[in-house]
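Kindly draft a polypeptide, keeping tokens residue-aligned:

***
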Amino acid sequence: MSVHTRSGTPAQRVGEADWAAIGEEVEEHGSALTPPLLDPAECAEVAGLYDEVERFRSTVDMARHRFGSGQYRYFREPFPAPVAALREALYPRLLPIARDWAARLGRPAPWPDGLAEWLEQCHAAGQTRPTPILLRYRAGDWNALHRDLYGDLVFPLQVVIGLDAPGVDYTGGEFLTVEQRPRAQSRGNSVALPQGHGLVFTTRDRPVRSARGWSAAPVRHGVGTVRSGLRHTLGLVFHDAA
């Protein structure tokens, strides 16, 4: 059986997405799915890199660190072409949301127009370790709720891309977010990541309306228990690590 492929490059698919609609969804819920950014063949190619250990700067065993169960690896530079292209193409699309959130929360907005210039700022501040990440979950694995901050300089949005098909390659393993609402109970959300689609979500916190105007609602994310099969995702964080 032949594998269906989408036309265009990953960067072109990012550019063709309806970013106004994605922004509205992020505004409403703190996260939003994109259209497919990788086709099935590209997903398989990226997932297959996991066993090429030389491509990565470090491997983390989640159970050892009490982060959950499963394993992930941080890419070393130079990144594989799809990883580099997606990170470059996504950053300027997320930048208007980041700047708007900073304005509403009365915070600095240190992010320049280009990703390279922003990463130079990270490196000058001692955040020099690359953060694109490839995650692998087997049956029984999960990821505890957390935030990917890595240092003082933080970009407020990130993207995770599903590389396997839920309900086909694995079951369970929904992507989870929990938002701590001002003076209210926390709100949870779960998403089954379609293969090739990205999920834009909050890195640290986001503005929500409160009695005083705008307040920062902290958000954590994780992954529910994988019931069966094998689940890979590509995580794109837009700041480097100290």
